């Protein structure tokens, strides 16, 4: 059931719109339909999701109904919620998100939390976020780990967006447009963190609908999904200070292969128990 198709509808309360939208989104959002409906309404009303529940008896304006109908149409077509909202939260921090960058996901919080533990244990002062996308990893480390962060990506758009996200979160980061280590020759860091493209190329054509909206550049890991790990393994040590550490996000079934490429590695699981991160010491 759609929320609305035009401003012909009137007298629709927030609670009614939320209920109708959740029913409509069930086919694409499944068990997350209600929470996604709440997120969309919150973005239109200009409040947080909890406040949506308390303001249920308020009527939406015709303009808000029209905007909600447009967002609903995009979501039903399979467009990810994060692109529709234009922002997303990770580690309690807000990040701008556009279709030119990989969407920040909860899986990456496992990587950030692992990196923060290493920063504390090793008293790291400098960090490199490679293949940064939105910059969510490096910025989170700068805010929460108090490190001096360098953020790099091959995509110019990612670099520009990362700077905007750094400004949004009140931290100063250095940004570098580069293909992995090429643009930072001679530089060393206490910790390097990377969420590289790791989907095998032949699996790209069978991705779920939402993933097809994300940039292929951020997904394509080569024939077996491991190309970037091999490239990183070839030279990461020369970019780490003594006692430094490398933290990598991995696909759920790549732990053994990645550890073999690096000759070692401590595997960390996500909240679902799936291998999600490999930590490699210098």
Can you tell me about this structure?
By secondary structure, the protein is of the alpha/beta class. Helix content is 39%, strand content 18%. The protein is built from ten helices and nine strands. It has a seven-stranded mixed sheet, with helices on both faces. Helix 9 links the parallel strand 6 and strand 7. Helix 2 packs antiparallel against helix 4. The chain is elongated and about 65 Å long. The chain starts with 13 loop residues before the first helix and ends with a strand.
Which helices and strands appear, and what pairs or packs with what?
Layout: H1 14-29, H2 33-45, H3 49-54, H4 62-76, H5 81-85, E1 87-90, E2 93-96, H6 106-122, E3 126-130, H7 136-144, E4 148-153, H8 156-168, E5 174-177, E6 189-194, H9 227-235, E7 240-249, H10 255-262, E8 266-269, E9 275-281
Parallel strand pairs: 3-4, 3-6, 4-5, 6-7
Antiparallel strand pairs: 1-2, 7-9, 8-9
Helix pairs in contact: 1-2, 1-4, 2-4, 6-7
Note the overall shape: elongated
Number of extended strands: 9
Physical arrangement of strands within the biggest beta sheet: 5-4-3-6-7-9-8
Could you give the distance between the termini? 56 Å
Name the helix and strand elements from N-terminus to C-terminus, one letter apiece: HHHHHEEHEHEHEEHEHEE
- SS summary, helix count: 10
- Biggest sheet: strands, sense, closure? 7 strands, mixed
Unreliable stretches, pLDDT < 50, 5 or more residues? 3-9
Strand-residue proportion: 15-25%
Arithmetic mean pLDDT: 94
* Helicity level: 25-40%
Radius of gyration computed on alpha carbons:
21 Å
Helix/strand/pairing category: alpha/beta
């Amino acid at each position: 059931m759609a929320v609305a198709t035009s401003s012909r509808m009137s007298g629709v309360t927030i609670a009614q719109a939320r209920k109708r939208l959740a029913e409509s989104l069930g086919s694409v959002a499944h068990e997350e339909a209600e929470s996604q409906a709440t997120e969309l309404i919150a973005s239109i009303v200009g409040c947080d999701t909890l406040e949506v529940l308390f303001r249920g008896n308020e009527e939406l304006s015709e303009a808000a109904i029209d905007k909600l109908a447009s967002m609903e149409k995009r979501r039903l077509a399979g467009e990810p919620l994060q692109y529709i909202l234009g922002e997303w939260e990770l580690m309690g921090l807000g990040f701008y998100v556009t279709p030119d960058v990989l969407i920040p996901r909860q899986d990456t919080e496992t990587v950030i939390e692992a990196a923060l533990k290493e920063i504390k244990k090793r008293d790291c002062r400098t960090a490199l976020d490679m293949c940064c996308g939105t910059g969510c990893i490096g910025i989170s480390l700068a805010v929460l780990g108090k490190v001096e962060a360098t953020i790099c990506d091959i995509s110019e758009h990612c670099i520009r967006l990362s700077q905007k996200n750094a400004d949004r979160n009140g931290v100063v980061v250095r940004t570098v447009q580069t293909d992995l280590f090429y643009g930072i020759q001679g530089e060393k860091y206490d910790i390097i963190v990377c969420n590289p493209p790791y989907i095998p190329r032949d699996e790209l054509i069978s991705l779920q609908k939402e993933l097809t909206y994300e940039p292929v550049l951020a997904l394509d890991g080569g024939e077996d999904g491991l190309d970037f790990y091999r490239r990183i393994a070839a030279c990461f040590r020369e970019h780490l200070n003594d006692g430094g550490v490398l933290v990598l996000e991995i696909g759920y079934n790549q732990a053994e292969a990645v550890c073999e490429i690096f000759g070692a590695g401590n595997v960390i699981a996500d909240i679902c128990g799936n291998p999600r991160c490999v930590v490699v010491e210098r």
